[in-house]
Amino acid sequence: MALEMRDICEKCEASLGWEAEAFICSFECTFCPACTAGMAHTCPNCGGGLVSRPRRKEQES
User: Fold this and answer.
1) Using CA atoms, how far apart are residues 41 and 50, in angstroms rounded to an integer?
2) Which of 12, 33, 37, 47 is most buried, with most CB under 10 Å away?
3) In a domain, 60, yes or no
4) Does some domain include residue 29?
5) Which of 1, 12, 17 is nearest to 39 (CA)?
6) CB crowding 27-47: b at 16 or more within 10 Å, else e
7) Which carries the bigger pLDDT value, residue 1 or residue 36?
8) Within a domain: 13
9) Which domain does 41 fall in, by range?
10) How many domains does the chain have?
11) Does 42 reside within a domain?
């Protein structure tokens, strides 16, 4: 089962490509680095910790 690679920050709606730095919780809520820092690495949806999302190369169509 692959991670759902969401392409925008759930808080500020910044664009997050597959190779962009992003942070996720265990439910795959996705945030940009600036929002993650502002939330003290805590997901506002579930209260879990936000960790660095692995990067994945864009797949060609």
Assistant:
1) 5
2) 33
3) no
4) yes
5) 12
6) eebbbbbebbeeeeeebeeee
7) 36
8) yes
9) 1-55
10) 1
11) yes
